[in-house]
Amino acid sequence: MVSAVTSEPSPAAQQTTGSNTDTGTLSTNIPTPPTAGNSYTVYLITMDLTDSYWKSIDDGCLSAVNEIGNITYKWTGPDAHDDALQSACIDDAVADGANAILLAANSKDGVNASLEKAANAGCKIVYVDSAASYDCVTALSTDNIVAGKTAAETMIHALQEKGITSGTIGVMGVTADTASCVARENGFREAFEGTGFTLADTVFMQDDAGNVTSAVNAGLSQNYVGFFGTNEGTTVAIGNAIKEASAESVIVGFDTSDAVLSLVADGTIYATMQQNPQVMGHDGMSIAIQALEGTYTDTNTKTDTGVTVITKDAM
Questions:
Q1: Is the pLDDT of residue 122 over 80?
Q2: Which residues pair with 74 in a beta bridge?
Q3: How many CB atoms lie within 10 A of CB 168?
Q4: pTM
Q5: pLDDT tens-place string over residues 199-238
Q6: How does pLDDT run across 234-245, given as a tens digit for each residue?
Q7: Residue 258: in which H helix or E strand, if any?
Q8: Cα–Cα distance, 89 to 87 (Å, whole number)
Q9: How far apart are CA 257 and CA 204, in angstroms?
Q10: Which domains are assigned to the chain?
Q11: Which residues contact 116 (CB under 8 A, 6 or more apart)?
């Protein structure tokens, strides 16, 4: 099933400043929102509509919509992480006359056929958070390899503070095809090479928090010393499982939803990596309109929007 949310413009949100380090072809500086000379229809299509992280990207889009004007904006996405369902969202957007699509791609290659149709229809493609392999105007996201390494370094430091220098760490992913989370995991694993720690095989949540809960309980029975969540959903599921088990562990995760921050504040989660989704949405919308107006002519540029480590002490 495909769901849609038509978002009405709200007061412009204050934007946080992220890293402007490019990870591929050099992009222009973070753009000043243009004034649209023509009217445009722009869609944000995310992996689903449930994670509050996607709402933060939507908030950034709405901020830019208010600043730019002359934009009909819609946020849509599937009910589950599924290439076919997300492809249907892309097809529907094109059928509705979308001039540009901001996409958090469910997988690297799974929606490319629909993206090709969109491009052939004259639609500008901008990636936010997670890119597909199809050509785009630009991709704004966290440098997920670097962010994964930062998460690992944070966990190693926390473990060493407890006098723990070896043991097994559980790793929780979303799906095997979710490129952004896979990259975070790769960076995380790379940073642990040469240490005394062992990283368990990845357990994928697959839109079912119960998968993570079962894996955490199994890990606790085997004396795992820590757990890593690659996104908001896995991070919350790990934290809730630890609380339900009345256990303690070093947990490092991603994103800053109210649920995640509550678990950081009460000490269940040691640290979470704060991304900048509002920047992705805001600047992605701005660049999309510049591309439609002909003032942004680069293609396939990449910008790292940065991460910040959030711990209880830093809140």
A1: yes
A2: 43
A3: 14
A4: 0.79
A5: 999 999 999 999 999 999 999 999 999 999 999 999 999 9
A6: 999 999 999 999
A7: helix 258-265
A8: 5
A9: 20
A10: 2-142+276-305 (3.40.50.2300), 144-274 (3.40.50.2300)
A11: 134
